[in-house]
Amino acid sequence: MNGTVPATADAMKAAGKFYDPVTYEGADHGFMRVAGELGNTNPGNKTARDQAFARLVLLLSEMGRTKGRPQ
Asked: Does pLDDT of 13 surpass 90?
């Protein structure tokens, strides 16, 4: 997946769109789904899920403030 990031960044810049790719060290593909599964032995998945969820909450909060909505 990381191989597509440079071309996507260029395309988003050309389109005037915001693009902020984030990768999580040690996480497997689909880490949000597999982090809670029984038998999952990669601790990087849970760490990545926690970090990604916190980032999502922050981004949604910032979007609400930008639109003039209360937090």
From this structure: yes
d(CA 52, CA 50): 6
pLDDT at residue number 71: 43
Q: What angle do CA 3, 36, 61 make, to 5 degrees?
A: 70
pLDDT at 28: 85
Please state, in angstroms and rounded to a whole number, the distance separating the CA atoms of residues 11 and 40. 36
- Token pair recorded at residue 29: 């593909």
DSSP-based three-state secondary structure for 29: coil
In the chain the first and final C-alpha atoms are separated, in Å, by 34
Rounded-to-10 torsion of CA 19, 25, 28, 33: -70
